[in-house]
Amino acid sequence: MKSEHLERCQVATPHDVVSLLWALARGERKGQKFGRVIDLGAGDARFAQDGRHFHEYLGVERDESRYQGVKLPVNATILHQDALDVRGIGFDLCIGNPPYIRHHHLEPGWRNHAHNQLKEAGGPALKLTANLYVLFLAQALLLTKTTGLVVQLIPFEWVTRPSAAELRDFIRENGWGVKVYRFKADIFPTVLTTASITIIDKSRHDGEWLFGEIGRDGVIESVKTPTGNADGVLPYAARHERSHALRGLSPGGQEIFVLTEEQRLFHGLRRRRDVVPCVTTLKSVAPDATFLDTCLFEEQFIRSGRRCWLIRSDRVQLSEVLKDYLKSVGEAWKAYSTCTNRGTWWQYRGHPIPDLLVSSGFVGKGPKVLVNTAGAIAVGSVYGVIGTGAAGAGAMAARLRAYDFRRRVVHHANNLKKIEVNQLNAVLHRLVR
After folding, report:
1. pLDDT at 250
2. CATH topology of domain 3-223
């Protein structure tokens, strides 16, 4: 994985949360002291500081600077190694806070090697879109005894995200008991994800999954489903033949492919010929807005200095001015696997202009839905809906705004919820008339 992303993901676990994880772990074993304990991605080994919880602790950390100078109990050691390279079995407990790195920030060679290692060791065949903590959770299950326990501080989203489906299936096939407690408190203010304590008990074979909300005081409130109510999580559906949603375009590094008005003018790029309107976020748009027309685009995106011009490097013929801009990028594109995996780093495959623009994240009843009369391309976290037709766009937008998404979508971060593109497609299936 890239060193800059490794550094960014190193968020220390608050000491009270460390104590809470230990209390829950020991509660699963009636207060007994654990024999052999492993901590994958141990950081400064703060899960080892209270040696009364275990007879032997092994922390695995690839960044030596994280634990240099740390004083450990006599029954604790740290192994300088990649956590996915650890082999063997026999740990009574795997506890810790694995790193959170999104899949597209993982080096393809390392990622593919790690996936193959997990599969060869008897683990699940995970999707390549699985984020790093999913790989760590799979490794934790492989390294613990058949009667072992896994207690991890990980994003709550793993219980529903398609990228973790194979891991969930693997757990269900083995019949292990699972408890997932979503934090009510904001454990990591600088990280945009909702934290959870996930407990997987391999000694149980009843296949029971329990959910709850937990405070920093350890008080747990049981809930029926991951959404916190009886409605259950929105299903995922393939595209409807008439109208469907598309993910926002991911050309590979928005600072390269999406420019502000000032940058466009500086490089002499011409509208329509070299760049086209696009939106990467709808945060600035008022909640009651229903249309993104040229006036609103000018006011909220162009004049405000937001990145709103997508370079047209998807075309076969590029202007000399655009070629000069691409040369000016230098080697910055090499930081993005999307670019490095293409034959020509800048030649992405374009997306159609959507009829509707839909934000993937939202607070309240549902996401923002705008009729796209400005002709903007949806990029990044903004979804595009196509196939409604000009006449039907307004009606479909109204139906989507009337739909209550909040009861069917899990928390992403604090009050923020996030809908997946194929969940949006499931809703479109219902609303298409």
Report:
1. 94
2. Rossmann fold (3.40.50)
